[in-house]
Amino acid sequence: MSIGILTSGGDCPGLNAVIRAAVFTGIKLHDMEFVGFRNGWKGVVDGDIMPLARPQVMGISKQGGTILGTSRTNPFEGGGAERVAEVMEQNGIEALIAIGGEGTLAAAKRLTDAGIKIVGVPKTIDNDLSATDYTFGFDTAVQIATDAMDRLRTTGDSHGRCMIAEVMGRHVGWIALHSGMAAGAHAILIPEQKTSIEQICEWAESARDRGRAPLIAVAEGFKLDTMDDAHSERGLDAFGRPRLGGIGDQLAPEIEARTGIETRSTTLGHIQRGGTPTAYDRVLATRYGMAAIDSIRAGHWGRMVALRGTQIVHVPFEDALGRLKVVPQSRYDEAAVLFG
Amino acid sequence: MSIGILTSGGDCPGLNAVIRAAVFTGIKLHDMEFVGFRNGWKGVVDGDIMPLARPQVMGISKQGGTILGTSRTNPFEGGGAERVAEVMEQNGIEALIAIGGEGTLAAAKRLTDAGIKIVGVPKTIDNDLSATDYTFGFDTAVQIATDAMDRLRTTGDSHGRCMIAEVMGRHVGWIALHSGMAAGAHAILIPEQKTSIEQICEWAESARDRGRAPLIAVAEGFKLDTMDDAHSERGLDAFGRPRLGGIGDQLAPEIEARTGIETRSTTLGHIQRGGTPTAYDRVLATRYGMAAIDSIRAGHWGRMVALRGTQIVHVPFEDALGRLKVVPQSRYDEAAVLFG
Amino acid sequence: MSIGILTSGGDCPGLNAVIRAAVFTGIKLHDMEFVGFRNGWKGVVDGDIMPLARPQVMGISKQGGTILGTSRTNPFEGGGAERVAEVMEQNGIEALIAIGGEGTLAAAKRLTDAGIKIVGVPKTIDNDLSATDYTFGFDTAVQIATDAMDRLRTTGDSHGRCMIAEVMGRHVGWIALHSGMAAGAHAILIPEQKTSIEQICEWAESARDRGRAPLIAVAEGFKLDTMDDAHSERGLDAFGRPRLGGIGDQLAPEIEARTGIETRSTTLGHIQRGGTPTAYDRVLATRYGMAAIDSIRAGHWGRMVALRGTQIVHVPFEDALGRLKVVPQSRYDEAAVLFG
Amino acid sequence: MSIGILTSGGDCPGLNAVIRAAVFTGIKLHDMEFVGFRNGWKGVVDGDIMPLARPQVMGISKQGGTILGTSRTNPFEGGGAERVAEVMEQNGIEALIAIGGEGTLAAAKRLTDAGIKIVGVPKTIDNDLSATDYTFGFDTAVQIATDAMDRLRTTGDSHGRCMIAEVMGRHVGWIALHSGMAAGAHAILIPEQKTSIEQICEWAESARDRGRAPLIAVAEGFKLDTMDDAHSERGLDAFGRPRLGGIGDQLAPEIEARTGIETRSTTLGHIQRGGTPTAYDRVLATRYGMAAIDSIRAGHWGRMVALRGTQIVHVPFEDALGRLKVVPQSRYDEAAVLFG
């Protein structure tokens, strides 16, 4: 049986561990053969394939990124199910393992509905997929953000400054929540919870008054309570000024002006999604890769692997679609006890 | 309300994060007061207490070990429930938070039965407690062991050597299982699975034959299938020779003799349990500390906090006692697919 | 003999190791006593002192920042030599150890000329002081920047993107040079070497043409050959547009537009100067702290400690002043061999 | 011009960065061609070569070990100069770059004397070569040992234990000296300085008496003042007992017995020499690799590259031979100020 693998969407530490585990398991237990599609769905619709046997995947678990390359191409822009079926047939490929986020899974669902044999592996560095407790990449991102905040804190303490770390999270605040809690942040600002600038300044001042240099973790998608979508449409920032930089850069001068505490912001950016995955992510990704082969063996087309507690389970694509897994109120309230 | 906190048993990254979160939460939300008992149950029976307010716990989450000190003292050796009650009364302490492993929880259960108000926080670097998915310290240990194996692998590859990493795990193989899987080990040897030296050599030779330097993760409590308890009683090693060093040191010359592959063993030892906790462990420990305060508020005496999926729950002490959480056959079989 | 210690200017990993080593050595060998001035020269002119004995400095070597706090205050703004002498006399302080960069050493020189007993310890995260081979903090900054670029590279490779890392270095390019060389950057852009956008794009394209995702290390103070000081005076960026963000953010869209390679920039910012120092920096800082006590014993007022090869030497303040240690042409040419 | 490269002796982080830089520089600037000899001198005498062009060396700087493999084979055991010349001629190789330690350089000198064109790159993780300030690998080893001691310290503090870290250094104590100083060890025991068990216990007790958990860094080659070579010949340990384990394991029970302080030893072993090199080592190794090409261009046969201060220089092989660079008394005395 010949299987094609593709990785799609933003890169994420652990992708290579999924690929390696799937290939090793399929070859060893079931005599499967594998090819890789280059650059996500683009490689599928273009028929751009690369060999994928033991030599290609040896030792890659600890490597960040994906040896297959990735893109944000949607297969339905390039021919859809018909074209995918054609490329698969031309290359003797019976089934696909699609590793990707919500967009990929949505496309995979449509292809499954059209009769293509696909199993999915969820990928979201933001931890925003509903159907799984966690997926790989998130733990690495949280660890990198936490390490960065540990470093920022010593500078804050030495200079008596408020330090802001802007982390990933356009729509959900999981990375900010976990890294902020791990680093002992005095405020955690997430998209799910609009907050007033007055409240933020109160937290900063409270920390300062207890002799601490305030540390604030803010997700890139956070909005002040005074902001509406019109702001970003008009190119204005959180304070109605022409927008320069991200939310961290917008907050810093405002906090400084209101509290008199010198404030600096750092945007962690792409370093959060690259490089060697944590052991946690490598284990999870490896288990996902192996479970994807189980899915294929069982003919679980249209399902993706997922983590529930300590178990890997198989859930329909649609369970992961349609609604983001946001930070629930209870988790925010829990974290907020330690603010200020 | 005044609460006493103690940490007992081997140290573990995350203990300080539990203490900090409990103290902050109790003070901030419920006007509680805290004292620390020094060196585990020893401090309780000796009445050796230290102040525990915000200044003592500020910034300690990222610090390994425990600011309270720890010991393996059993409270029933030093007076039992009566003495514990006496010390609590003398110091105006109404309830205890006991952070420890199976021994501590067993003692805590007996004290609870005798009317002492105790809530527990599970601590096991080995991941061997039944009632919780994970507890803090384990993730850090796995990460350290994985990093070490990543390093050993490059030496193995350069010299064409078989490298053995002996990791913690006297009775259960969780650390070996996870770090070995993360590092791509060619064999993982755990106490739950007696294995023959022939099988181990076969895995090593299989890896060598594919051009790889074999990497073996072995838990300190692993036993060959030819070993029985009599071996260690008589001071003999796995091969009936006078025992020198741990199982890794015993395996190395035997593998080398049988396969002709130069073999070296490294015992990671205490570095696995100290130092800065991972972000994962800090988040979990912080949530445990906060949940312990909820337990007290709810009067959940005789219960410990535990992780189930992504939720913190409260379970009776006895659920964690009596049987170790061993590596199940299914998890071992899953990992074994990648051996050799 | 009573000694005052102060740390001045931007914080830097290793400051605490200097303080600890000086205090331990002075107390142990020479029966000295120490006090710390809070927040640099500000604490000196304000008479704001804190105790500095063994308990305050135990275990602080591995802590980033400075337990004394720091500021950019100039002592001549707050009363000058007279005021400094007065505060020293009031507190029974005979000599000062001033840990700081060029500004601090310049002030220290003027104070020495006015009769104040001062020895210096050079501090520059940028490696821009002439009289010493290296000083502490630089190695840590280079390591952090290198780790970040290792991470960025995997994202670049996965997406076929050009990744830009903007590192510290307003006036000199040492951090960019070393981290760029360590990370295998395809271009290193430093203030000492104005470069054309055409040349930068050529390097990026050359890397791309060999199948590599281009990685560019740029110091924050780098200027294109078309830029003059007038640009920044007028608030314009490298391309004559209203200035948004740093040089990395300015280069990214231009490289993308000219080469067609998707390009992303990350500004590492403050994470480069905080947190646990590398072992290299801890050793150097410790040796500096001990040597500063030798300076005092020898009455080497007006001198600072410095590294020459593997030796710690004592050089006059003026040797470190007046001219920045820039990246010499030969070191740039050496690095440039590996560009493209 | 065609060049052969070999790596010989124990592996060391940075070897790959040397290889990459030499190959890139030679190809780019001088149209050279390269081949690699597999497994050190063994590959030379066996004529076992591998291609070495850009694709083989891309991205390998950050990889530990050596892609060429290494061995401890001496070329004079396998045919000597005549055989080496023959293999070189058969493969059209005009000159060799030999990367190795004292043994390699000694062999290279004899081969040079016999007319073979060789330039050397010094490799010593122990920092024991006389003719260079430092070489690559040492900084990484010191960093790993320091990180390990940082971890051990938190366990020591929590349990009130004395922790011993046995680090590499059979003949010289540089790794122990630097890592011990970086980690704030209370005693550093090195081969160059025989010490009495009474003195070691005094340091441990002094630390304990100040409320510190004693931390001891010991080089594997350290000997007590009561030990002579006869001990190891007769298989006896430092205390005249049958020898089990290394010096750390021998000291631990003796310190515990004499001081009453529970004592644990950890032998770091092979993790000190593998894995990703520090940025410092990558920069130094890269500069060495490039300078080796300069040596070839200049016909500096019989010379090796070396670091003096911040400069790369070229020194005759014999300058590196004959005498180990031991820790001088002054550096030990400096460190010893902080003991106890």
Automatic annotation (TrEMBL), chains A, B, C, D:
Q: Specify the protein name.
A: ATP-dependent 6-phosphofructokinase
Give me the gene this protein comes from.
Answer: pfkA
Catalytic site residues? Answer: D126
For this protein's source organism, the top of the classification is: Bacteria, Bacillati, Actinomycetota, Actinomycetes, Micrococcales
Q: List positions binding Mg(2+).
A: E102
Record keyword Protease present: no
Which parts of the sequence belong to the Phosphofructokinase domain?
A: 3-295
User: Family, per the entry?
Assistant: Belongs to the phosphofructokinase type A (PFKA) family. Mixed-substrate PFK group III subfamily.
> What superkingdom does the record give?
Bacteria
Its Enzyme Commission number? 2.7.1.11
UniProt key word Magnesium: yes
Report the protein's function.
Catalyzes the phosphorylation of D-fructose 6-phosphate to fructose 1,6-bisphosphate by ATP, the first committing step of glycolysis.
Record: residues binding substrate: T124, I125, D126, R161, M168, G169, R170, E220, R264, H270, I271, Q272, R273
Q: In which pathway does it act?
A: Carbohydrate degradation; glycolysis; D-glyceraldehyde 3-phosphate and glycerone phosphate from D-glucose: step 3/4
Q: Where is this site: Important for substrate specificity?
A: G103
Q: Which cofactor does it need?
A: Mg(2+)
What's in the keyword line of the UniProt record? ATP-binding, Cytoplasm, Glycolysis, Kinase, Magnesium, Metal-binding, Nucleotide-binding, Transferase
